[in-house]
Write a structure and sequence with these properties.
three-stranded antiparallel sheet; alpha+beta; nine-stranded mixed sheet; T-fold
């Protein structure tokens, strides 16, 4: 088993591969990181030269020519938006900018209500048009912008896994922050064991990494992504404001969920759907997961852990403060 870490897509990335030799492992790891780097170049909102930025600049005026990768992700993103009835919407960018969670430097603050109302007029994934033959993407309204932060890392993990597979490696695990995609078995001959971050750790920033993990699952030929209200947030007057914005209100989601992990066949699905479920809440979120036949781990503000039926007996809760509830019994 060979492992390497790098900083890409504004976060910590780790690639682990199982290979016959160090030479093969290095070649596969390089291919994986190369693919992630390519996706970073295409989807970086902070680069004026990225394809995502160019699409925004052309909004309301003309279509923007894009690579096959950007077109592919855009089609997948629109499909996720449709499946979630807009609970995941990549045109949320004008609203996100107001909250400044992702600014450089980040300087989060509560925006003026009027500014949010104006920005919400630019949020509608149905106004994204794609032309496969011309390889073009068009935002129909001037001022519209895209933010693929809620799906691009999962997609990049998918692409990295395909690049690693092409090198003939037996198995790999690609982790781009909380978006993880694995295939094959680890060097132990078992599925990959993945920890889920504790949304309310007793000792934040502990030097003992296992203290920040509240549950673990095994991953085989699947992806897992986690969205939480703790990742980028601030507290004002006793209320937590976080970066997962409800596209319908323009304000941080108040669904009662504080963490959502989704397990799906592909990373772009787990990455997009975890955000949507956190916005939708436990009941609607579970119905969405059930309709898509994918698994999820939902944690509410009372530290109740709701799991889909498919995860029954397959998740280990590591902290006593969390109570496990199987969805079919708790949510009706």
């Amino acid at each position: 088993m060979f492992k390497e870490n790098r900083v890409l897509m504004d976060t910590f990335c780790t690639i682990t591969v199982v290979a016959d030799s160090e030479e093969k492992a290095k070649e596969a790891i390089e291919a994986g990181f190369g693919e992630i780097k390519k996706m970073e170049t295409l989807f970086n909102n902070f680069s004026p030269d990225s394809e995502i930025s160019m699409i925004g600049k052309s909004a309301g005026a003309k279509p923007a020519g894009v690579s096959k990768e950007t077109l592919d992700l855009m089609k997948k993103t629109i499909a996720v938006s449709e499946m979630t009835d807009g609970a995941f919407d990549p045109t949320i960018a004008p609203v996100l900018k107001l909250w400044k969670f992702s600014g450089r430097p980040a300087n989060p603050a509560i925006p003026e209500e009027g500014a949010i109302e104006e920005a919400l007029k630019l949020v509608d994934f149905r106004k994204i048009k794609t032309d496969g033959a011309a390889s073009e993407i068009y935002l129909q309204q001037k001022g519209m912008e895209l933010d693929l932060g809620g799906i691009a890392k999962g997609y990049a993990a998918d692409r990295a896994v395909e690049a690693i597979k092409a090198k003939g490696t037996q198995a790999a695990l690609v982790a781009i922050a909380g978006d993880i995609r694995g295939y094959g078995l680890s060097a132990t001959g078992k599925p990959w064991k993945v920890g889920i971050q504790d949304p309310r750790p007793v000792n934040p920033g502990s030097e003992k990494p296992w203290e920040d993990i509240f549950a673990s699952v095994y991953l085989q030929d699947r992806a897992i992504s986690t969205a939480g209200d703790y990742q980028r947030s601030f507290i004002k007057d006793g209320k937590r404001y976080h970066h997962i914005i409800d596209p319908k209100t323009g304000y941080p989601s108040e669904s009662g969920l504080i963490s959502v992990s989704v397990i799906a066949p592909e990373g772009y699905i787990s990455d997009g759907i975890d955000t949507a479920v956190l916005v939708l809440g436990a009941e609607k979120g579970m119905k969405l997961l059930d309709s898509m036949n994918i698994d999820g781990i939902l944690v509410d503000s009372q530290k109740r852990v709701f799991i889909t039926k498919g995860l029954k007996g397959k998740i280990e809760i590591l902290h006593e403060g969390y109570g496990l509830q199987v969805a079919e019994k708790t949510l009706s």
